[in-house]
Amino acid sequence: METRDLAESLRSHDPTVGLRAVSALHRLAEQVEAAAVARARADGWSWEQIGDALGVSRQSVHTKHGK
Known about the structure:
- The structure is a single chain.
- The chain is mainly alpha-helical.
- The mean pLDDT is about 95.
- Helix 1 packs across helix 2 (about 15-40) and helix 3 crosses helix 4 (about 60-65).
- The protein has one domain.
- It has helices at about 5-10, 15-40, 45-55, 60-65.
- The radius of gyration is 15 Å and the shape is elongated.
- It is built from four helices and no strands.
């Protein structure tokens, strides 16, 4: 879903359209987070530093992204 389409969908009065837009936002956020974590790890960041930046524990971020 394109950014413009997503913004338009979020303003929709149709709950189905709005909920699909929310789902697309969740998927996008997961992709952005994974890319940012990979970049931080490549730059030498520890799991603790990444967890602090995300507001979660190092164990949580490692479990999610430490594959």
